């Protein structure tokens, strides 16, 4: 009787949460589409001639769009089925959900490295024709991780969504493939930007000539604009790191699970705010 009541309560909470999650994710999808249209209009058929800020904005909102589209599809499926899917359906949904979440992780790391090289070394990293040097790791590494996890049967349903199988311990796929990657990415990004900030402060005091100041100001503005997208990533997925660590030790409360998912689906809206702020100031 108790198990039946708990199951019913969880299902009701899941349904009650799924509907607002779909609404928020849908708003993110709409904003992402608007930004993509504006960027393509700005490119006038020469997308790869756009500034790196515009290209990073495009890639960020594109991965956002795909991530939120997967969230909406997952939420609708869950609402219609009155529960979380199982088996191969859950594995496929987990791959789509986590692929585009991971893509944003690696894109944020590459963006931080780009800014680091620009400010400290004074040169821009070449991403190659069609930005393939950026896109290959951003798409390929997550896909390889997820296909391997699926092959070992590690993509399962949990209490709120389809993802890594939740097993307690620090050697589980969930800890190594989810928590550790998110935490290391946030730490890497934070360390890089702290170094950049310290360097900019030191150089600002050292620079004397007007030409040097103008060059430094342009580089710093570019770095600041790109760092806003990275900041959104930290806000968007920081809660997942807390949830991932908690899961590795014990069962987290549903409120924490829902809070981390809400933060992840509002990222598209935050990226929209960042993009329109940059667009207005340039």
TrEMBL record:
Its cellular-component GO annotations read: plasma membrane
**Keyword terms of this UniProt record:** Membrane, Transmembrane, Transmembrane helix
Highest taxon of source = Eukaryota
According to its UniProt entry, the protein's GO biological process terms are: adenylate cyclase-activating G protein-coupled receptor signaling pathway
Record-annotated membrane-spanning stretches: 15-40, 52-70, 101-120, 132-153, 173-200, 221-238, 258-278
Q: How does it sit in the membrane?
A: Multi-pass membrane protein
The UniProt GO MF terms for this protein read: G protein-coupled receptor activity
Cellular compartments annotated:
Membrane
Question: PANTHER family in the record, alphabetically?
Answer: G PROTEIN-COUPLED RECEPTOR 157-RELATED, TRANSMEMBRANE PROTEIN 116
Protein name (Swiss-Prot/TrEMBL):
G-protein coupled receptors family 1 profile domain-containing protein
Source organism of the structure: Mytilus galloprovincialis
């Amino acid at each position: 009787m108790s198990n039946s009541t708990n199951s019913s309560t969880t299902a009701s909470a899941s349904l009650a949460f799924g509907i607002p999650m779909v609404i928020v994710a849908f708003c993110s999808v709409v904003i992402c589409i608007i930004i993509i249209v504006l960027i393509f209009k700005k490119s006038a058929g020469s997308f790869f001639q756009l500034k790196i800020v515009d290209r990073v904005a495009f890639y960020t909102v594109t991965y956002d769009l795909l991530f939120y589209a997967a969230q909406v599809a997952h939420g609708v499926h869950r609402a219609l089925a009155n529960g979380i899917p199982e088996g191969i359906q859950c594995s496929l949904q987990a791959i789509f959900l986590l692929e585009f979440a991971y893509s944003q992780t690696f894109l944020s790391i590459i963006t931080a490295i780009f800014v680091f090289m620009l400010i400290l070394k004074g040169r821009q990293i070449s991403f190659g024709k069609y930005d393939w040097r950026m896109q290959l790791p951003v798409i390929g590494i997550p896909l390889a991780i997820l296909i391997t996890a699926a092959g070992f049967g590690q993509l399962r349903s949990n209490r709120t969504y389809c993802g890594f199988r939740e097993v307690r311990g620090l050697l589980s796929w969930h800890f190594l493939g989810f928590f550790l990657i998110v935490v290391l990415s946030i730490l890497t990004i934070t360390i890089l930007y702290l170094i950049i900030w310290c360097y900019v402060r030191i150089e600002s005091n050292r620079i004397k000539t007007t030409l040097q100041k103008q060059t430094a100001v342009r580089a710093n503005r570019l770095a600041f604009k790109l760092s806003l997208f990275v900041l959104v990533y930290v806000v968007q997925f920081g809660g997942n790191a807390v949830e991932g660590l908690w899961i590795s030790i014990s069962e987290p409360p549903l409120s924490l699970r829902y809070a981390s998912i809400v933060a992840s689906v509002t990222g598209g809206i935050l990226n929209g705010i960042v993009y329109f702020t940059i667009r207005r100031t340039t």
